[in-house]
Amino acid sequence: MTALADIDLSIGNGERVGLWGRSGSGKTTLLHVLGGLTNPTQGDVMLAGEPLTSLDAAARGRLRSRSVAYVFQAANLLTSFTAFENVSFARHVSGGDGELGPADLLELVGLAAKLDALPGELSGGEAQRVAIARALAQQPELLLCDEPTGQLDSDTASRVLDLIGALHERFGFALVIATHDPDVAARADRVVTLEDGRCVSDQALDSE
After folding, report:
1. Domain 16-80+141-204 - what CATH class?
2. What HEC string does 11-68 produce?
């Protein structure tokens, strides 16, 4: 079975792209290929001007850690680490040394009062905001979000999407949000539609 076929996709600097499709359409696989987590069996993937497909695993990991960050459907926080420690660890692993430290990033996502909270002490929305702060700690050029609101109620989901959008405007990273929800995809500047592993539409949206 072919997971993806005939994909020809370019994500520009600072661009905001919605990746829409039903469950099983290939969205997550495409995110993994874009971010270097999965090497395609055919074709090339360029990231920050470098060919991911020709790098060995170690070199690909180094490039990924300094260029790409992920926000998944589940926050996937380290359960024995506090919110501060989760963000600090990501910053250390990626070698990030920006002006905003872990406490600053958590304040930015509205969690200044939760620095010492463990994941089990956070609501679903709070945990996802820690995951967003953790992603920002890597100072990514590309932020890949895989159904980032899939486990949240509608009000919390809307606030998380508003936050991601505001951070995109502030920091200017390229943003790709994979979703099965057309309303979430419509928040982007451009929507790429997948069906059975193929791109069936690539449409710029009216920004007005």
Report:
1. alpha beta
2. CCCCCEEEEECCCCCCHHHHHHHHCCCCCCCCCCCEECCEEHHHCCHHHHHHHHHHHE
